[in-house]
Amino acid sequence: MLYSHTTPEAKRRTLRELLVPGTARQFPGAFNPLSARLIQEKGFDGVYISGAVLANDLGLPDIGLTTLTEVATRAGQIARMSDLPAIVDADTGFGEPMNVARTVQELENAGLAGCHIEDQFNPKRCGHLDGKNVVDLDTMAKRIAAAADARRDPNFLIMARTDVRAVEGLDAAIERAKALVDAGADAIFPEAMKDLSEFEAVCRAVNVPVLANMTEFGKSELFTRAQLADAGVAIVIYPVTLLRSAMGAAERVLDALAHEGTQESGVDAMLTRARLYELVDYEAYNRFDAGIFNFQVPGLDIGSNNAAL
Ligand SMILES: C[C@](O)(C(=O)O)[C@H](CC(=O)O)C(=O)O
Ligand SMILES: [Mg+2]
C-alpha cells in the first residue's frame, strides 16, 4: 500500500551487492510509477529510468530538453513505487560540473539508487543515432569527479557513460572508460557497442561493473542475458521496451476503435480491472479504511466499505 517501505539507503546497498561482473542483472525501463511495480512483481533486480522515455512521455524528442526538476520529480515518483533500486539517466548532468553536483544531490533526495552521466555535448541525442559529439576527457572527468564528490550517501552509484565508441572507435572508448574510473566512476556504460566482443573488451579493461544497453532499433544486436553475462556484463537495461510495447498496444486498440467502432477486439489483450486493482493494491486500502472506520452508531447504518469492486 502507498509507497515502498524500503529506504533509499537500503536500495543503494542492494544495488552495490547486485552489480557483480558476469551476472547481467536485468533492469527494465519503467515508463511510469505503476510499471515499476510490475517490474518488481515479475522478479527483476532493479528499475531503469530512461531519459528518452521521460522526454518522449512529455511528447519531446530526447535531445536534452527536459530539466533537472522534471527528471528528478518523475524519477522520484517511479523510484518510490518499488523496493528495487532504481537507476536514472541524468543525460549530461544538466550543465557544468557545479550543476552536475546539484543534479546528484537532487537525485539522492528523490530516492534514486544511482545515475549515469554521459560525455556528449549539448544538445545531446540518442546514443544509437549518428552525428553525436563528445566533450574532451578533461571536461568529462570533471563532471564525474563533481558527481562523486557531491553525493552524501557513498553508496549512491555514479556511472559514467561514454559515447566515444561511435565517434572515435573502440580503443578510444576503452581508454576513456579507464580514465573515468580513475576520475571516480563506480561503473561504466559503454554506449553503442557493435557486438559481444566489444562488450567483452570493455569488461576486461575496467575493474568496475559494466552496463549493456539493449535498446531496440539501435546499433547493438539484442543479446540474451546469458550472452551478456558470459561477456562479463554486470547490468543490462531495456530502456524503452515497456514504453514501445505500451504505445504499440495503444495504437492498435485506437485503430480498432476507429475502424470497428468498438474496442471489443482489443479487450483480451488488456490488463483486466481486477489485475489493475491488484497492482495498485486496492484491497489494502479497503482494509486500512475498515480498521479506522470501525465505530458503530446505534440505530444508524453508516455503511461499510465500498465493496463494489
Ligand atoms: C539509454 C538511453 O540514453 C535512454 O535515454 O534510455 C537511450 C535509449 C534510446 O534512445 O533507445 C540511448 O541513448 O541509448
Ligand atoms: Mg538517454
Question: Overview of this structure, please?
Answer:
This protein has 309 residues and is of the alpha/beta class. It folds into two domains: 233 residues, TIM Barrel (Alpha-Beta Barrel), CATH 3.20.20; 47 residues, no CATH class. Helix content is 45%, strand content 11%. The protein has 13 helices and eight strands. A five-stranded parallel sheet has the order 2-3-4-5-6. A three-stranded parallel sheet has the order 1-8-7, with helices on one face. Helix 5 links the parallel strand 3 and strand 4. Helix 4 packs parallel to helix 5 and helix 8 packs parallel to helix 9. The two termini are 17 Å apart. The C terminus is likely disordered. Bound molecules: alpha-methylisocitric acid and magnesium ion (MG). Alpha-methylisocitric acid binds next to helix 3.
What is the CATH fold-level name of the largest domain? TIM Barrel
CATH class of the largest domain: Alpha Beta
Classify the beta-strand content into a percent band.
5-15%
CATH superfamily of the largest domain: Phosphoenolpyruvate-binding domains
Largest beta sheet: strand ordering = 2-3-4-5-6
Overall spatial form: globular
Stretches where pLDDT is under 50 for at least 5 consecutive residues are 303-309
Q: Which structural class do the helices and strands define?
A: alpha/beta
Examine the secondary-structure arrangement and name the CATH architecture of the largest domain: Alpha-Beta Barrel
- N-to-C terminal Cα separation, in Å? 17 Å
How many strand units?
Answer: 8
The pLDDT mean sits at: 94
**What share of the residues lie within helices?**
40-55%
> What small ligands are held by the chains?
alpha-methylisocitric acid, magnesium ion
Oligomer: single chain
Over all CA atoms, what is the radius of gyration?
A: 22 Å
Number of domains: 2
How many H/I helical runs? 13
Largest sheet, described in full? 5 strands, parallel
Series of H and E elements: HEHEHHEHEHEHHEHEHEHHH
